Amino acid sequence: MLSIPNLIKVGVCTVEQLLSGHSLLTTESHKIEGILGIPEYQRPYVWGQKQIQRLIGDLREHHKNSIVQDSPYYLGSVILHSKDLHSQYIQLNIIDGQQRLTTLALIGYVTGKMCQLTLRYHSGLSIKQIKKNLAYLKKNKEQLKLEELDLSKIQMSFVITDSEDDAYKFFETQNTGGVRLSGVDIIKAHHLRALSKDNSKYQTYYAKKWEALGDLQNVVLSLLKGRYWNHLNLNKKDVPFYKESNKIRNEIVEEFSTRTSANPIDIAYSMTNVCYSAITRTAQQYLQNSYHLRQPLNAGINSISYLEYFQYLYLNYYQDLTVHYLEEYCQFLTWLKELKGCRFLEELYVIGLMLYICQFGEYKLEIFAKKFFRVAYSKRVSNEKAVRANSIPNFVLESKVLDQIATSFTAEQIFNYLDQFELKVDDTGLDKDSIKKEFIIKTIEHFHLQIDLEDPKKCAQEFLIAFNKSIMALGK
Asked: What residues does the DUF7834 domain cover (predicted)?
């Protein structure tokens, strides 16, 4: 529950008053003087043509159907956090309402009805989208009938709180703008806000660093699965079905926000190798300079750095394949990413890949990539037909493949385990054109296997023997 004493400043104003920096009058007749701002933890401005058209359509519909001429249009509420900036002036940070207010500010600018705007944007993504929407509004000014819109007739209620905690709770729960906050938006807000308490001087730096990371949705979802698909998962948490976007969002917030510690230390957990000399028993220590995928996280810099590290792995070793010096590895991953009908298997593969690299780096990476492929993609040949999403977590927990990678002391331990995995090949569908048959043919070609494709049963048997032999010979 939000504490009532902090929510004492409420009122109604026009959009024109709000955007132009005019005094706001509360219901208790108190004047609020302040300049609108956007906090670092806010997501960028993301509205596109669809949301703009809907907003303009609502405004025009109201104007058309109003019984009383020039009656005001109520646009909902805006949540503001009052922040005293070193007693120089009050900044009213927009917690909820940025998308609507920015769009209306652009409309006011295009029509020339609002030239004195106080909003300032620091996000490169916001600026890019603003330029895009500004060009759209200018080009379609007459078609959209922007001149008919009067910002002095659009009213909003405002709620101003002095408590950043309450403001953040509003930020998490509000969804009035039509583009729901993603889990990544919310964890960004959580960790940048954590910096404002202990390391406020770093907040802008890490806000820019976060933005430079680009789209984190894929890597965050992979990390969530890698942490939840754990045989020793004491929380007994399951990753929601891939179509349950709201539940996935909530689990992302739970794992990467709610469960993080308030400890401000940036710490990375990794295995230490200590080698002792035979006679003097002196020790030489080797450290792996990385974060562990399943490590506990602290709010603020630690979580941001953790996500930055795994985004780097995801982009460079999987999505963009910038590690060109690992020629054989890059060739194999390029081939693997083109395989059809393997979406859910590929998601598992990426998790295992990041688990391995965060512990062993590039050491024998091309060998791991191929040995893990035999295991991670095994259901493509053992299933009679399609590989369904709900079969993957069951396979992971039964085989304990991710746990084996996460807990092995050496890469060779992992290789031995992967080689011991019993691959099964079902011949169903090999007598006709099918995704399974295409997969087997592609694999035969890539690994240069000699297989008779005419007889389905014989093909399945020969493929099993030849493929196992080829993979198990790696690294020998």
From this structure: 203-426
Q: Where are the domains of the chain?
A: 4-181, 187-313, 321-476
The token pair at 447 is 């690994």
Q: Would you place residue 453 in the very low, low, confident or very high pLDDT band (cuts 50, 70, 90)?
A: confident
Cβ-based burial of 358 (10 A; exposed 0-12, middle 13-18, buried ≥19): buried
> Is it the case that residue 198 has pLDDT exceeding 50?
yes
Strands of the sheet with 73-85, listed across from one edge: 9-14, 154-161, 73-85, 89-96, 35-37
The pTM is what?
A: 0.76
Residue pLDDT, tens place only, 20-77: 888 888 877 888 888 888 887 777 888 999 999 999 988 888 777 665 566 788 888 8
What is the sign, positive or negative, of the torsion defined by CA atoms of 337, 338, 344, 349?
A: negative
pLDDT tens for each residue of 141-152 = 999 888 888 888
Tokens of 211: 């933005």
Residue 242's closest CA among 265, 267, 215, 224?
A: 224
Q: Helix (H) and strand (E) counts for the chain?
A: 19, 9
Selection from 13-22, 108-117, 291-300, 382-391 with the highest mean pLDDT: 291-300
- Taking the C-alpha atoms of residue 156 and residue 153, their distance in angstroms, rounded to an integer, is 10
Separation of alpha carbons 42 and 79, rounded Å:
13
Q: Residue 367, exposed/middle/buried by CB under 10 A (0-12, 13-18, 19+)?
A: buried
Residue 428 backbone dihedrals phi, psi, to 5 degrees: -60, 130
DSSP 182: P
**What's the rounded Cα separation, in Å, for the pair 77 and 345?**
45
Specify the amino acid at residue 218. Answer: N
* 399-426 average pLDDT score: 96
Helix segments in 199-337, DSSP class H: 203-212, 217-228, 245-253, 301-314, 327-336
* Rounded-to-integer distance, Cα 193 and Cα 93, Å: 13
Residue 154 · residue 14 · CB < 8 Å: yes
| Tokens linked to 401 | 């493949």
